[in-house]
Amino acid sequence: MGKIKCDFDGYATRNDLKCTDGRTILKDAFKHQDGTQVPLVWQHMHNDPANILGHAILENREDGVYCYCSFNDTVAGQNAKKLVAHGDISSLSIWANQLQEQAKRVMHGAIREVSLVLSGANPGAYIENLNFAHGDGTFDIDESEAIISMQIALSHADDKPAVKESSDDKTVAEVFETFDEEQKNVVYALVAQALSDAGGDAQHDDGEEGDEVIEHAGGEKTVADVFATFDEDQKTVVYALIAEAIDQSNDGDIKHYDEEGDSIMKNNVFDKSAEPASKNVLTHDQIGEIVADAKRCGSLKESFIQHAETYGLDPIDVLFPDARYTDENGPQTLKREDSWVTIFLGECTHTPFSRIKTVVADITADNARAKGYVTGSLKKEEIVPLLKRVTTPTTIYKKQKLDRDDIVDITDFDVVIWLKNEMRGMLNEELAVAALIGDGRDVSDEDKINEQNIRPILKDNDSLYVHRGDVAHAATTDEVIDEFIRLRKFYKGSGNPTLWTSTDLLTEMLLIKDGMQRRVYSSVQELANVLRVSKIVEVEPMNGATRKVDETHTNDILGVIVNPKDYTIGADKGGQVAMFDDFDIDYNQQKYLIETRVSGALTRPKSALILERRPA
User: Fold this and answer.
1) 3-146 topology per CATH
2) Could you say which DSSP state residue 412 is in?
3) How far is the C-alpha of 461 from the C-alpha of 448, rounded, in Å?
4) HSE-up (13 A, CA, CB side) for residue 101
């Protein structure tokens, strides 16, 4: 950005620091405003041109938003310059709108102005360097950050009287002009508290029970301390403003948003031209009692809740904050345990072509043996049968759609990212299940994954690629373990294989006890060593899995011993997993498709062992 001439520089806000309004600004929340010039204002009072002190140039940095500020030649600007130069003011704050946040974590927004404040909301926003005495006042831009100060924006209405007093008929606007800055901050805090109690987000407190601290005001005075300095006219104005806030909350008009996402207040609290609602309004005397009680207990919120039923606030729930979503990553999914999917697919062999051909020469027959020769006799040729199999690809997909209105309205989490993650996870699981035991759908189901394209290990050719064993229906768990051990001698696959089995069978094997009622196997790995496999992996879809032997017999599946390295998954260029988005303008729907075109098959003979339980 080169060199910037300015009067001072500092952090407007810093990332990952909790502000006093409960918000935390995330990294790059205002990245799009790097280099933007915004007004420099006094105490966020941007409703009066006299409060504009100059301008600030923003710079996005790794740890926040930095600003380079210059004062104008106005009386207010030069006065503020003297305050900064003398060290009387050192805190900075930002005013931002169009906020996008989840669980009080601001991910995006638009900074509208930077303010000099007596006390900032963000603990990391302050002036770093003064450049009044430097030669040309220029320096290199390096880093930056900022703070959001969420204040109630009160504006003056027309000359119509808002609240009449019996003494001199002053309006709220006229009395409000008599407040000093500290007292105005108390008014902001009280109105904000009323809005927060009714479900808004404007509550400011220092986190300690019973001691509310005024944000952006000098010192650490409580609301009760400053409220005691109000005269009767000023107290009446406070009562009127709080009553208006409660009235608006009961009408459901606490917080509204315009088309750009800016937070706006439906009614001007000084404007009484519109007929106010009559229900659920507290009188000045009633509010006075509540505030007096708040002085004693130290919490305006608790006082309002205690007095709500007494003064007939119905429904009472308007005084409580709205429920908030606790998981910013989206809804928790109720699904099958799928950690095995990553293990299985990760260990499979993957090829950049989808047409998989295997050729197996069977040299196990007697005629393939070497023969002895007798002089003068005929030497016989060996006949080696060659067995060939070709596996072609098929498409596996998952499709979803969302109404765009729902995408916009769901602000607690990113529903699109959550949906895409769910689609990818389910696609992977479906491919792994189809490769290991088959997808379980009937052959007549149009959604079934073709078993000639993704060949299930469970149903593969008995004479060439798998070897089967079985136990009687009444066989004990000890007998099942013995049969697994016997089967191991038929394994011809790569390396040390893995046992893929159901949680039910694994549990039964681990529960075996000796004559002294001690566990025979202290761990899953100890059991794996006994079974002569590298590890045992639980596969939830295998709970209750069966294989149809013939028209009258169906066997229960106990386990599959195989090294996934011997199972090849192939996909041509362009057939890998791909996600597609499309917007249906007629129905205002966003549609999502994830698909892959692959083939899969065992490519090594006798590389899988399958143990089944015969029916009764």
Assistant:
1) Serine Protease, Human Cytomegalovirus Protease; Chain A (3.20.16)
2) S
3) 20
4) 20
Give 58: exposed, middle or buried? Use CB within 10 Å, 0-12, 13-18, 19+: buried
| pTM score above 0.90 | no
- Which pair of tokens denotes residue 199? 């479900």
Q: Where in the chain is the domain with CATH 3.30.2320.10?
A: 464-572+603-613
pLDDT tens digits, one per residue of 542-597: 999 999 888 888 999 999 999 999 999 999 988 888 989 999 898 889 999 999 99
Residues of each domain in the chain carrying CATH 3.20.16.10: 3-146
Tens-place pLDDT, residues 44-101: 887 788 889 999 999 999 999 999 999 999 999 999 999 999 888 889 999 888 888 8
Say if residues 89 and 77 touch (Cβ distance below 8 Å): no
Instruction: Give the CA dihedral 451, 457, 462, 464, nearest 10 degrees.
Output: 100
DSSP 340-363: HHHHHHHHSEEES-S-EEEEEE--
CB-CB contact of 201 with 322 (8 Å) = no
- How far apart CA 148 and CA 23 sit, in angstroms, is 8
Name which CATH class applies to 464-572+603-613: alpha beta
Residue type, 26: L
- How do residues 376-393 score in pLDDT, each as one tens digit? 777 766 666 667 889 999
